[in-house]
Amino acid sequence: MRKLLFVILSVALFACSQQKGYKINVNLEGAEGKIILEQRAEGQWAGIDTADIVDGVAVLEGEVAFPDMYYLSVNGQRAKTIVFVENANMTVSGKADSIFAAEVTGSATHDEFNTINKEIQKISEEYMGLYQEARTAGAAGDTAKANELMEQVEALYKSTNTLQEDFVKNNPASYVTPFFLSRIQYEKDEAELEAMVAALDPKLDEVPAIIDLKAKIEQLKKVAIGQTAPDFTQNDQDGNPVKFSDVYSKNELTLLDFWASWCGPCRAENPNVVATYEQYKDQGFSVFGVSLDRDKDAWLKAIEDDGLTWGHVSDLAYWNNAAAKIYAVSSIPSSLLIDKNGKIVAKNKRGEELGQAVADFLNK
């Protein structure tokens, strides 16, 4: 009887000790108004929880089905900080004017995230410093030094991707893994992504980031090399509708180029696209630009300033550009090479690789 009573009491105490929901104690110096807990869903901010701030302190309480990434902010301010929320007693402390640097404790999941993220931040600070040195060297006319520094920048940037990819491969059951996998997805083709997702613990199937990634993989399969390019129609600079199939059917090879006036890497790549176009346009090569702009004047000015003399279209819908959604574009610049029959023959060729790919196709 005494043994049975001990077991019953132990079970009762264990049950009482289990955390049934989350409690986030927020202490932000200088904060006023309300604390907002949000998630990003389908390109929109979705409010999850709010709490009044009293003397810089607020308490958020609720329950999550599984640990996941949320954003914490002070109402009325744009700055946010990432918090991996799980059903535990958590604390977020810092200053309202630098909430991005707030310290999060009490979440084992957030601790996993923070370990890698701190390494990434350290490397990022290093390569941004080198990038500024490269710009200074370039402005001073020291091209050799600028190029050398940019090679170091590229190597450091790639090392951050390696850190994240290693975490994904070594932690298939971590609720942080979907976040890092989403971050490195842009440089992976559909086959690589599918293999990485298949290697994850099935419990992660309910995480929104994995649900979205699986949907994207299915989209990517439809625009993979060897597939027929999906057709679409958008308006050109003068408001006239242009059908993409009417463009590529007139050329031996067409570069479908997703870009925007506000995209620095796109503008940096434009001179190379112009050079390739000028070199091969008489051999049947052309370019068709799809802009993810929302400001028409900025779009038109960039076309003129960069000397982009080929056809252009845009629905001025920013990341909701209808053609970009069809082609599963989630980062720019993004491009596809398409033959006159609509077959996709290559993807995301930039720099010297673009010219080589065009030459190889036209001279085969």
The backbone outline, from C-alpha atoms, is: globular
Largest sheet: 5 strands, mixed
How do the helices and strands follow one another from N- to C-terminus? HEEEEEEEEHHHHHEEHEHEHEHEEH
Distance between the termini: 88 Å
What is the helix tally? 11
Total strands: 15
Approximate strand percentage = 15-25%
* Overall pLDDT confidence: 91
Structural class: alpha+beta
What percent of residues adopt helix (DSSP H or I)?
40-55%
Low-pLDDT stretches: 1-18
Strand order of the largest sheet: 13-12-11-14-15
Rg over alpha carbons:
25 Å
Primary descriptors:
single chain; 364 residues; five-stranded mixed beta sheet
Protein model, in words:
With 364 residues, the chain is an alpha+beta fold. The protein is 43% helix and 24% strand. It is built from eleven helices and 15 strands. It has a five-stranded mixed β-sheet. Strands 4-1-7-8 form a four-stranded mixed β-sheet. β14 and β15 form a beta hairpin. The longest helix is centred in the middle third of the chain and has 32 residues, at 108-139. The radius of gyration is 25 Å and the shape is globular. The termini are far apart.
Entry summary:
The protein has 364 residues and is α+β, with helices and mostly antiparallel strands.
